[in-house]
Structure prediction request, 243 residues.
Amino acid sequence: MTMEPAKGILSVQVWRGGADGAFQVFQVPRQPSQTVLDVVTYIQRSVDATLAYRFACRVGMCGSCAMTVNGVPRWTCRTHVDKVAEGGALSIAPLRNLPVIRDLVTDMREFFDKWAAAKGSFKGARSKTEPFAQVRPDSPERMRADAGIECIGCAVCYSACDVVSWNPEYLGPAALNRAWTLVCDERDAANAERLRAVAGDAGCHACHTHMSCTERCPKHLSPTAGIAGLKRAVLRAALKGDL
Ligand code: SF4
Ligand code: SF4
Ligand code: FES
Prediction:
């Protein structure tokens, strides 16, 4: 029989160890406006200093605090316990689809390597002696690029994507969203190369449009829409013989 936690106390199971680790249960006092990151921080500072986890800004900007909370990937610094604790219980685990280093810390290398593989860095065409490119904030091009630019690299979408689980080579929603943002950036000069990078078997065509990335993105971005845009851009480039 599962015991209900005492009133004012959260029963929190936290992943300990590497991929073959196990959950450990902690009792954590409830606080008003408590976030999941507050809960993890309480455990690390007041109960077990060996608990490994990652955070930086605590205000939803750095993207480093994402974990799996009651089975769902979330940014923990902006996730209130009230919204997610079921019957006063929380389960906190590392992000899915990434190697676990220890406890709640995953190795983000392959996630960011895929940004590089998708040519996710800006390549300008102008030299520093030329005037700045001027892109009107209300131009359709700018608005298309803006739709994906607020990504904080948290990997919540990557962790939510079943295609990444089935095919570890898949570039994934965040890298493809980044590629799409650059494809829409009229100042960028590397689009032929970028479209070739995302056109392969592990690129945009592997997306099954499940929408989990879009449902879970804490910044309300739509990698699914960006990936659909990439599919169209790849097709156009292929028909023109540019790939
Ligand atoms: S829409 Fe594509 S990238 Fe997003 S979760 Fe589904 S399969 Fe993954
Ligand atoms: S697209 Fe959203 S969920 Fe994915 S890494 Fe960027 S901010 Fe996080
Ligand atoms: S700690 Fe920076 S986004 Fe959560």
